């Protein structure tokens, strides 16, 4: 059984393939890391009966929302059609929440100077504090990656949506395999296919009218196999016979 690879089941997508999937991979990676760290922090805060900061709630919500959005849009991309307008609205809302969460996280850790200090035991009073320092640095880095990747995806959505609204020369999608194969076929010209102009074939044109039997008398009589000419029945011969 032959399996076709790299063939999408839906309509050709207007998105450029490499930037589209690269940005989505960055979004997915950052969302998984941020949601994992947030679940870890919130679990121990609940165990110690501490209040959960709003920064953690916002970051956990936006990371999970990004994972859900990526799942839905990749299904639409592969099986039906991913509209740039729909993706523009989705990434616009998610990028706003990412930016808000990143700003809240940066403001909350600015007083402790976590980013400027080394994550070692002597600096933080033990290995537990050093581990929390490393977690915060990873959280801040992945939040920055998620914010930048989502904003870049938003810019890509806008550029793709604007391109699809323009009327002009048809731009072949990158994932349209049939159109690409048709484009790669060798092109032939009229001379290569032994095309004869109309003048050479005796067809009437505006400059050279077609010839009629009365303009050019031709021998249309029947000749036997021995070379003897039989009676000709051309248009002029019929006229002479009647005379």
Distance between the termini: 81 Å
Taken in chain order, the helices and strands follow as HHHHHHH
Identify low-pLDDT runs: 1-6
**Helical residue percent?**
55-70%
Quickly list its features.
membrane; disordered N terminus; transmembrane helix; 243 residues; MARVEL domain-containing protein; mainly alpha; transmembrane
Please explain how this structure is put together.
The chain is an all-alpha fold and 243 residues long. The chain has a domain at 17-165. 58% of the residues lie in helices and 0% in strands. The protein has seven helices and no strands. The termini are far apart. Residues 1-6 have low confidence and may be disordered.
Summarize the structure.
The chain has helices at 17-47, 54-79, 84-109, 121-124, 127-165, 177-184, 235-242.
Secondary-structure blueprint of this entry?
Elements: H1 17-47, H2 54-79, H3 84-109, H4 121-124, H5 127-165, H6 177-184, H7 235-242
Helix pairs in contact: 1-2, 1-5, 2-3, 3-5
